[in-house]
Amino acid sequence: MTEETVYSTFIGTANHGFGQHAQEEIRRLFEAGTRFSHLVPSEIFLFMVPAGRQEATQRLLDREPMFLRHMQPVDAELEWDGTVEALGGFAAQKRELELQAGTKFAVQVRKTEQVGSGIAAGACKQAIDEALAGRYEAIPVVKDADVILSVFLTEDTAYVGVSKPEQNLSDWSGGAIRFRKEEGQVSRAKFKLLEAERTFGLDYSQYRSALDIGAAPGGWTSLLLERGVKVTAVDPAKLDASLLRHPQLTFLQKNAAEVRFKEQSFDLLVCDMSWSPRQMGKLIKGLLYSLQSGGTAIITLKLMHKKPFQTVRELTGDLAPELALQKAKQLFHNREELTLFFIKS
């Protein structure tokens, strides 16, 4: 008699248009039998994998897919009547959701477009907060939660799961990390570098000297300057005028292929250029002598022909052996691109 296969169910979220790539990565992680169904076409999907919950989660964390922005476990499904009240009642009664007294929990509610506009995510969150706080004496919070209660609503079903923040890949609802636009902000590209800092576990204030290749108009340069880093920005186009008098900035209005630096001048290299990956790789390769051993490189890779896995292999091959890839991720603030984190050997 053969032992029955145990399956675990999750909801996966990718950037719009890249759901199939996230599914392909998940499929490669698990043996035959992985199943998918769409919740939001090309973006949000249910996936069932042939492994227990703990094993499946750990495998996804250890070999994190590039295109899987967020995942939530599905511990329970509610045949939902479309009312906010039903969600509160369900949260208070379902044994899978039991919490210890004093546990800090954050409720994250998302829904498909088919769920009426009269059902607000905020109202759903409040109903669940009140139900769990009353039933278990748990503490509702917005950040720094011990656990996250994720709720995904369709027209007739509520998918609910409880997990630790790190088990979701992101502690933001759906992995949609949002930063507040500042007055006088040079460009929204700054958000990509901010998100990369969190995603890759970096602290830019710990770096001494950075090279920003293709810097104009200066979104990435501005963030590094704010963190106290000396920045050498290179671009034939102009930087935003607000940056030019900064005492920590050296601006070279040239093509990066035409400049020369002292060896190991920088401990951080960043590049967010709209070039073809192979051209960009050649340019960066020619400047790696200026990056210190053990230095960091953060590079945005444009997916011009939608062959992402091949494109990543080619670029990492072009930059080897000097740069070793630590992690590649399609961030929330990426569009048709990936952000790559390297360490110089």
Low-confidence stretches: none
Global geometry: elongated
Q: What is the CATH level 1 assignment of the largest domain?
A: Alpha Beta
Helix content: 25-40%
What characterizes the major β-sheet? 7 strands, mixed
Question: How much is the radius of gyration in Å?
Answer: 23 Å
Approximately what portion of the residues adopt beta-strand conformation? Answer: 25-35%
Q: What count of structural domains?
A: 3
Q: Classify the fold: give the CATH topology of the largest domain.
A: Rossmann fold
**Strand segment count:** 16
CATH architecture annotation name of the largest domain: 3-Layer(aba) Sandwich
**Helix count?**
8
Strand order of the largest sheet: 12-11-10-13-14-16-15
Helix-and-strand structural type: alpha/beta
What is the name of the CATH superfamily of the largest domain? Vaccinia Virus protein VP39
Secondary-structure element string = EHEEHEEHEHEEEHEHEEEHEHEE
Overall mean pLDDT score?
A: 92
Span of the ends, CA to CA: 52 Å
Domain Ribosomal RNA methyltransferase FtsJ: 186-274
InterPro entries: RNA_MeTrfase_FtsJ_dom, SAM-dependent_MTases_sf
GO molecular function, one term: methyltransferase activity
Protein name: Ribosomal RNA large subunit methyltransferase M
